[in-house]
């Protein structure tokens, strides 16, 4: 049993420990090593970088749309290409950027913040990254071959059905959903288990950092929401490929079934994107005000309430259909009610800022930008919750303005803040501060210039998803303004990229805790070693680095030559037992390849499912096959009880 | 009626451009903020109430935020005394209570408007069945006697001051019927029949547009709702009931022959002639409409000619093929179509 | 020679729409035939090559197949050609149109097994007369 008490003694013994741990935990070298690693730091960084790449691609598509809409009757893009572009833009941002980016931050930072050495189910983690990557690649290969989906990111039937969307375009969209949802579900499971089972001793529920709470709530939401969309996208593929009639009204199906199933997922999806950002904001506000967040319990209850109520709002996307009026009123009330927990959080942060001493570094600047942008978006959302008003502005640019305000304000601004905040930890260097300020102001001004006029355009009758408009409509001026604003956003992103690329080489070297923050990830070096902590820490307060003395005990007795972590109890995080973490393996990558083959094949023929299951089965066999080394290590562990 | 098509070509001085951009646009022919019906007025009032309340809330929250960040502070300390904590608890509690109160007010306002909109306007003076197609609107005026039913396309006339009931159907994919000056939108969903009741308070031409993405030419699927005094409306109805005008001169007769011998007849109907295609707009009274191609083009001879020769250049992806005619035949065809009042 | 739209899913789907709009089903039903011969089997009275089917549609044929000369632009005829060929599995599998959103009196298109590619060409009437 691992014993607590006793600290590191001589530096010489430390060095030996470090080298042994490093050897145990380091990822294998070379290309095979890169494909085999099951370490959360590597995989978390991959998620972040890949998701940012998709953000850039989605952003380029947005710029193309704004170029087209800048003038009435522009000939820049025809309807077919425009329809593909807006579909792939929305799909990219929602499925390939926002959720994986938040997951990436979770995969990297949750184990660090809870004080353990790796995420639960590390090989599943590796698998989920490759599945996500292959899904995104499939979508973009299809798009570049002019087979990109063109029925919108939520793909309403019958337009997306077999008769009105011929070819494979929508099939690629539907199957990309399967890829990304499988990946998200896997990561959600890993995060839930990590948070509930692998916390450092002493990190009872009331000492868990708010970012970790946010990732826990998000992961639980993913588990309940994602299956709905996997089911509905599978039903869509079946309608298109094998001739079922789920959505065919003439044969007993219903187009509204799609809408219900999709939005039952779709509304929680935006909270899945938003709630991790709330966690980032808590980190940044606490650190840069140098005080703990005001109202910890209220904050957690608000996160949980948002997550829970978020499942009860979906019909507000369907107010213009013939859903019964009484039901509509229920969803109006719920959609307004969800503003309450968000309001609680905002007021608690304002109280924290008021009573702390804010330091206006770029992370906090972006968080201040969040307040401005998200509150505006939230208020337009409360307006949209009202059925009569929604009947006018549903499916217009008012809604486009609203959701960009809440998504960019609620997720992208905090994300940039989080990236500026955690860049030192991820890379060991600080991002340039002045460039960060430019980044923020360009984004803030450009964003508002682009999306605020859209509210007006919606009220003036401009519907969504139109590739052009007549000059007589009078929409030209505001559209031109919005397009100019989008140029500023692009400039801001370029500044960010320049900042990142330059700081990686020439940025100021970062200490362990350059921001003097309080949570456990700052107790490691920047970047952390692969074994993260020389000794698993113990925790006796909510902000360990601020409130604990240097005498705080650490965990000793875990093996250094075997990958081992400590499992603790659910409520009070008392040590329960030690557990061996699986080694690196190429099999998750191979299984992901086989899974990709199965999914892509099933776009073309139903036979891909039984035939494709064979390589997947082989991959799983390889993945789970017990090895002599595993057996020996297990014996060692049990022998040394 | 020409106001709907006036050009906004005046150049604005650069300095006033910003204000002009934000406020002049309210003259858009499709603005929800220029209501012409009891329902649209109700919704517009609800909007202004919500806008006022939300603007105040926004200013208050951002004001509190800016104050919190920038106000002067005394000594530095990471932990705060108990009295300050208690004060903040009261302040946050008060803000949450205010939030709940304001949301309740908005909820009541919304439900009250909702109920107001749901109240029947009275027995409908006219019942119109609108069927959404990819990318045009089929309009049928119901009548108990089948021979008095009218089928037209893309342009709807209604009597001023009287309720009109629309039943909405979709032939292919989901569309959405939306005339912002008159009401919110209602979706046309295959397999569902939905209804919406409209009433115009004043005469005018009100433009609407499809508001649910329906494929390539969703952007060019507009419609006009023309509200007229009841006598004018009845006269229009009577006129629409008549079959097509007989060709008046040899050129128009030749035009009818060209029509019947060309691909037009595969899809279009002209009542009173053998042409009975049901899958495209009814052309019996083509010349009486203000626009062509679902609100995309003004109905002038030049535009009609361009549309017939190459619809794909104007609405790429729509279902009407390009047509080839020799010059004389084409002039005859145009003359005939121009006569279809 | 596969014809201009043999692998174009959009064109074949347009052919499916035109088949419905121009009431080919009035005689050929959904491909099973009725007043007119079936289109989903492997017997082609006038040939299954795209050019043959094009000629059938444009020129008409004895015993009731009307001529659509001048009534359909060429590209729409080619779309119909591609669709008719798809009814007997003579186009690439990926381009077959999905089931239509209308009453199904037949199995969905993708589930119909492609008959063997042997084509039995009946002699044309003029050949028969010789």
The biggest beta sheet of chain A reads: 2 strands, antiparallel
Overall mean pLDDT score of chain B?
Answer: 89
Strand order of the largest sheet of chain B: 3-2-1-5-8
Of all protein chain pairs, which has the greatest interface, and how many residues does each chain bring to it? Answer: A-B, 92 and 94 residues
Count of runs of 4 or more consecutive helical residues of chain A: 20
- Roughly what fraction of the amino acids of chain B lie in strands? 15-25%
Strand content of chain A is under 5%
Summarize the structure.
Chain B has nine helices and twelve strands.
Give a quick set of tags describing it.
heterotrimer; A: 641 residues; mainly alpha; two-stranded antiparallel sheet; 20 helices; 4 strands; 2% strand; C: 130 residues; two-stranded parallel ribbon; 5 helices
Question: What is the element layout, followed by pairings?
Answer:
The complex is a heterotrimer of chains A (641), B (341) and C (130).
Chain A: E1 3-4, H1 11-25, H2 30-36, H3 40-69, H4 79-114, H5 122-144, H6 169-197, H7 210-241, H8 255-289, H9 296-309, H10 325-337, H11 339-355, H12 362-384, H13 387-393, H14 397-427, H15 433-459, H16 476-506, H17 544-547, E2 555-556, E3 564-568, E4 575-580, H18 587-604, H19 608-624, H20 628-639
Antiparallel strand pairs in A: 1-2, 3-4
Helix pairs in contact in A: 3-4, 3-5, 3-16, 4-5, 4-6, 4-8, 5-6, 5-18, 6-7, 6-18, 7-8, 7-9, 8-11, 8-14, 9-11, 12-14, 12-15, 14-15, 15-16, 18-19
Chain B: H1 14-23, H2 38-70, H3 82-118, E1 126-133, E2 136-141, E3 150-153, E4 155-159, E5 164-170, E6 175-177, E7 186-188, E8 194-198, E9 204-209, E10 222-228, H4 230-241, H5 250-261, H6 264-267, E11 291-292, E12 297-298, H7 301-309, H8 311-314, H9 327-338
Parallel strand pairs in B: 1-5, 4-10
Antiparallel strand pairs in B: 1-2, 2-3, 5-8, 6-7, 9-10, 11-12
Helix pairs in contact in B: 2-3, 5-9
Chain C: H1 9-21, H2 25-28, E1 43-44, H3 50-59, H4 74-87, E2 120-121, H5 125-129
Helix pairs in contact in C: 1-4, 3-4
